[in-house]
Amino acid sequence: MTLFNSLIPNLNRALNREAQSTESATLPSIKPVYEARESEDAWGLTVQLPGVKKETLEVTVDEAQIRILGKPAWKQPSEWSLLYRESAGVPFELVIDHDNLVDAEKILAEIKDGVLRVSLPKTAAIKPRKISVN
Question: What is the average per-residue pLDDT within 25-49?
Answer without folding.
Answer: 87
